[in-house]
Amino acid sequence: MLIVPGLRSCYGKVGRVYYFGRMLDKIRLHAAGQLPPADYAANLGKGFDGRTCSFLRLNYDELKAKTLAGGLTDEQLLAWAEEKGGRRSDEECEVWNSFMMKRGWRDDVLPLLTKRIQESGLGDRTILTMFDYIDFDEGRDPVGSPPWAQKS
After folding, report:
1. Which pLDDT value is given to residue 150?
2. Which residues form the domain of 116?
3. Which residues fall within 8 angstroms of residue 136, CB to CB, at 6 or more apart?
């Protein structure tokens, strides 16, 4: 289990989009030398980061530069992303969020999820998705306190 202070859950929402805030956290923490390289650096801009950038029609390196330039809140960065890549409809965001929240559940990511659960010794937990796995692996309990059910 790896706990990284300042790294929020995949379930964390900025505006209407899950995961975006976590990606921003990873960018900032990596630049500050506070993101463990062995566990995170190789996937910066790839995986869920890459999918999120594709959904927003953004280039990861441009988002990284804008984020590290400072002066913008997460909400302002999302507004910038939507100006640059085009605003998504509420329905598109709903579909996107549902897709991301369910990765690993009855899809092509299941073998990887199963492997990670076994390697991490988390087989005794109710883990159905990659978001669940990441939360448990980082010391959060998305089952006992489901993030999507909490009010902002």
Report:
1. 56
2. 102-139
3. 1, 120, 122, 125, 127, 142
